[in-house]
Amino acid sequence: MDVMKKIEYSQMRMDIPSFKAGDTVKVHVRIIEGDKERIQMFQGVVLCRHRGTTDATFTVRKMSDGVGVERIFPLHSPFIERVEVLSEGKVRRSRIFYLRKLRGKASRIKSKNSWDN
């Protein structure tokens, strides 16, 4: 194994659960304001996931007061406290950027866990 690959794998986090595009997740992010530190939650739908070793990222979108807010999180960042998967979505694509154009009920994603598929 390469020296660089050994360093990259030592920096990776293995406590992140598996999720994919369409899943609803709650990301607990560590925020530092001055000398204080707190944890802020960001709950939304995963639009895409860029795979990789230490440079893997995922994009989460939520609606806040009628305005769509997207945030890109580095997957192996030490500022991410934890990621909770709330529900698994039933989508056919790996990047669901079409959600940006949809409004209201049209932007809902069917749940994979529901009994009435």
Automatic annotation (TrEMBL):
Q: Does the keyword Transmembrane helix apply?
A: no
Keywords attached to this Swiss-Prot or TrEMBL record, sorted alphabetically, are: Ribonucleoprotein, Ribosomal protein
Matches recorded under InterPro entries: Ribosomal_bL19, Ribosomal_bL19_CS, Ribosomal_bL19_sf, Translation_prot_SH3-like_sf
- What GO terms describe the biological role, i.e. biological process, of this protein? translation
Q: Name one GO cellular component term.
A: cytosolic large ribosomal subunit
Single annotated GO MF = structural constituent of ribosome
Which PANTHER family is this protein grouped with? Answer: LARGE RIBOSOMAL SUBUNIT PROTEIN BL19M, RIBOSOMAL PROTEIN L19
Q: Which HAMAP family match?
A: Ribosomal_bL19
What biological function has been recorded for the protein in this entry? This protein is located at the 30S-50S ribosomal subunit interface and may play a role in the structure and function of the aminoacyl-tRNA binding site.
- Family in the record: Belongs to the bacterial ribosomal protein bL19 family.
Q: Kindly provide the name given to this protein in its UniProt entry.
A: Large ribosomal subunit protein bL19
Organism, per UniProt?
Desulfonatronum thiosulfatophilum
